[in-house]
Amino acid sequence: MILSLFGLTNRVAIVTGAGRGIGKGIALGFAEAGADIVIAEIDPALAEETAGEIRAKGRKALVAPTDVRIASQVDHVVEQTLKEFGKIDILVNNAGGWTVFSPVLGIEEQDWDRCIELNLKGAFLCCKAVGKVMVRQKRGAIVNISSLAGFVPFTAAPHYGAAKAAVANLTQTLAMELAPHKVRVNAIAPGSVETDLTDKLYSTQPGLREYRIKTIPLGRLGRPQDIAAAALYLASDAADWVTGETLMVRGGMLGIPSQS
Ligand SMILES: NC(=O)c1ccc[n+]([C@@H]2O[C@H](COP(=O)([O-])OP(=O)(O)OC[C@H]3O[C@@H](n4cnc5c(N)ncnc54)[C@H](O)[C@@H]3O)[C@@H](O)[C@H]2O)c1
């Protein structure tokens, strides 16, 4: 009985940045739980790979080439989704990341803007476009991907930390705005998860990966599946009385060492 609350049978989910890493893990996890997936991804080749794996699980996958920073492209994904499936049950704002590593005093203005655009503006545009549909439906669940970096100092990429803190705040505010319409809005703040994104950081600093693992009480880096499990909970009816929360999924990590 309780397990059925965690199912997503015949739900329709848009997952941004689902071509690889955490977004792909969430898309595949949701498909296993019974959802059809719209892959809103900037890299069409990666999106096709994810789509193939979803179809192999017996669910539908719509590849929607999208740059989440561009409002017209976000609106287009929403139109495509409604045309194909007639509804949007779930939105996961996962597309994000960093561009450069620098302390605050070294960040160039354009790098600051690019990071805020990708992580914060992208989430805002998707929340706005999909939120309007969910309000009309009087139903929906949004899951934003924030970061532990939004809650503790992340000296390698402070602009990224600031953007992710803002994503958590947007989550709380939007949750209040949409609660009367039965639309829930939550976030996940992952600690260090092994993906191409973090590989880039470790490649600049030999020894950092191993050093970080030593600081993680549960003794390992996160896996996309760890975040997918949390996203499944927040997107499903099991979290029917949960909104405005940011769930930390971080193996007990209290800080983010940027140097070994
Ligand atoms: N990996 C971690 O340790 C970690 C920790 C905390 C939070 N996060 C967050 O989780 C999310 C996923 O991270 P990841 O590690 O899987 O990253 P990743 O770089 O491995 O994957 C990101 C995906 O997003 C796509 N993408 C990039 N820009 C896009 C855009 N403008 N529009 C649409 N798609 C775009 C990429 O092509 C890629 O498929 C990000 O928001 C990241 O900030 C990651």
Distance between the termini: 47 Å
Helix content: 40-55%
Give the CATH level 1 class. Alpha Beta
Shape: globular
The total strand number stands at 7
Count up the domains: 1
* Distinct small-molecule ligands in the complex: nicotinamide-adenine-dinucleotide
- Briefly note the structural class of the backbone: alpha/beta
Provide a compact summary of the structure.
The chain has 260 residues and is an alpha/beta fold.
Question: What does this protein look like?
Answer:
The protein has 8 helices and 7 strands; from the N terminus they run βαβαβαβαβαβαααβ. It has 260 residues and is α/β, with parallel strands linked by helices. The protein has one domain: Rossmann fold (3-Layer(aba) Sandwich). Strands 3-2-1-4-5-6-7 form a 7-stranded parallel sheet, sandwiched between helices. The mean pLDDT is 97. Residues 16-17, 19-23, 41-43, 46, 66-69, 94-97, 118, 122, 145, 147, 190, 192-193, 195-198 line the site of nicotinamide-adenine-dinucleotide (NAD). The site of nicotinamide-adenine-dinucleotide (NAD) has 30 residues, from α1, α4 and α6.
